[in-house]
Amino acid sequence: MLIEFSVENFLSFKDMTTISMVAAKPFKEHKESHLIETNCHFNLLKTAIIYGNNASGKSNLLEAMGFMKQIVLNSFRDALLDNNERKFPLEKFALNTQSEKETSYFEISFIHNETKYRYGFEIDYDKIVAEWLFHTTSKEVYLFKRDYQKIEINKYAFKEGVGKEEDVKENVLFLSLLATLGKEISSNIVDWFKKFNFV
Known about the structure:
The chain is α+β, with helices and mostly antiparallel strands and 199 residues long. The chain is built from 4 helices and 9 strands. The chain has helices at residues 31-34, 58-81, 174-180, 184-195; strands spanning 2-8, 17-20, 35-37, 43-45, 104-112, 115-123, 128-136, 140-147, 150-153. The strands form 2 sheets. Strands 2-1-5-6-7-8-9 form a 7-stranded antiparallel beta sheet. A two-stranded antiparallel sheet has the order 3-4. The protein is globular, with a radius of gyration of 18 Å.
């Protein structure tokens, strides 16, 4: 279940923009038909509507979600196909010269198998600049944090990443690499992305 999605410096989104499916606490009407109860001390909306003027960015939000999904599912495979010279099909915010020099940011929170995850990355045209994965059981803890090629792993909560830090190339997501190797948590997250559909 989707909780939140955030994007920055992509298509028409210069600044951080977030869509949240978390229901406002005063929401009381039609709870049985409109809300999903979670084990995370909040409820989620079953549906949300984005409205606005033509060319105001509604479709670009879906494009951003689709871009993140594509990178998660294909970063390992595409790096092999392109002989390690792969550039991401990244379209940064074009109406500001500074944006061209900055990274693009994508982050998503969701619930899968009764666990809340928060996963995201910052990328430039040819490299992963940062990447992170957190999960929440009783409280949120990091599973791994990446700063360029330096990867810090929670050795207690994310044993599947231990020893693989040096195996990831600069244009490949660490999550995608681990999922390709059949690691359990990473594979489950990638499976969630495979089922993350929008029209």
